[in-house]
């Protein structure tokens, strides 16, 4: 038995929440309005150029949207070996379509093709992706069945994208853009019967933020968790690994203490300005 949602709107909300949780930018658009949103988003990122699949209809529409802008549309029409250095060093962004979406995991499925090769969405530091939400499936196996991947055969490459490229290999520090685009921008085309307002939760004001757990409840839950031996062992292993890595990086006790003092200064300063910072966060657009 697979996962399901009460409505199409709830399914889209789940998909968007999963993708936004890993730093994906999503714009709800219409079939006729997406080119304008695409241009605004591209200009907002200060791009100098963008690679377009001009052999596709959406690539042609994207190029038309950039007319009279400061963004140079570049056609992906040369063999990669003839301009590899320029491609990797000078291209700001790439634009592609998508095959379908998978709601449960917050994923887009892309197919590679001569018109839209895999490097189009993999190499540029910013990836704009056009997605028709009418092609949303509940789970991966639904997408395989719906797209008839078994019957029709697989393309050379199938990509499952759930967010921008990220890694925490180095010192357990999360970094974006190490193995692919650092930014993923999705232009999600909605059907006529769904409005963007239906999909955006009302923003919570600072006055309504409350902590509902009672102190005694927290203590009870903590006591139960402390009796869980596998959990305690896993936590101990994780903490030992973190302490070992920290010691390797900060072996000088004086340097470590200076870092602690600096962090405490930052914490105190942040707390002193917390009301103002919360108001600024509330006013900041998504």
Your description of this structure?
Helices cover 43% and strands 17% of the residues. With 286 residues, the chain is α/β, with parallel strands linked by helices. Helix 2 (34-44) crosses helix 3 (57-65). Strand 10 and strand 11 (175-176) form a beta hairpin. A four-stranded parallel beta sheet has the order 1-12-7-4, with helices on both faces. It has a four-stranded mixed beta sheet with strand order 8-5-6-9. Strands 2-3 form a two-stranded parallel sheet. The longest helix has 21 residues, at 229-249.
**Quick one: biggest sheet?**
4 strands, parallel
Quick check: average pLDDT? 84
Query: Percent of residues in helical segments?
Result: 40-55%
Distance between the ends? 35 Å
Output the helix-strand order.
HEHEHEHEEEHEEHHEEEEHHHHH
Read across the widest sheet, the strand sequence of neighbours is 1-12-7-4
């Amino acid at each position: 038995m697979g996962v399901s949602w009460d409505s199409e709107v709830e399914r889209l909300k789940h998909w968007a929440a999963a993708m936004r949780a890993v730093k994906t930018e999503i714009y709800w658009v219409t079939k006729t309005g997406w080119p304008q949103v695409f241009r605004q988003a591209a200009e907002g990122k200060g791009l100098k150029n963008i690679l377009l699949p001009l052999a596709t209809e959406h690539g042609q529409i994207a190029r038309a949207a950039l007319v009279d802008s400061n963004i140079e549309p570049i056609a992906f029409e040369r063999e990669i070996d003839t301009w590899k250095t320029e491609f990797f060093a000078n291209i700001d962004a790439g634009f592609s379509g998508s095959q379908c979406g998978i709601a449960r995991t917050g994923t887009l499925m892309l197919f590679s093709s001569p018109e839209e090769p895999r490097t189009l969405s993999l190499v540029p530091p910013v990836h704009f992706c056009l997605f028709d939400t009418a092609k949303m499936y509940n789970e991966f196996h639904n997408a395989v069945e719906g797209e008839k991947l078994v019957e029709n055969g697989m393309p050379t490459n199938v990509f499952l994208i759930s967010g921008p490229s990220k890694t925490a290999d180095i010192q357990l520090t999360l970094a974006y853009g190490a193995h692919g685009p650092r930014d993923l921008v999705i232009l999600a085309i909605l059907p006529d019967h769904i409005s963007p307002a239906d999909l955006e939760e009302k923003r919570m004001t600072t006055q309504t933020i409350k902590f509902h757990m009672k102190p005694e409840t927290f203590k009870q839950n903590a006591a139960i968790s402390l009796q869980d031996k596998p959990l305690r062992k896993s936590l101990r292993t994780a903490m030992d690994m973190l302490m070992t890595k920290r010691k390797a990086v900060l072996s000088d006790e004086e340097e470590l203490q200076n870092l602690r003092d600096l962090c405490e200064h930052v914490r105190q300063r942040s707390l002193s300005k917390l009301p103002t910072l919360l108001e600024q966060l509330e006013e900041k657009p998504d």
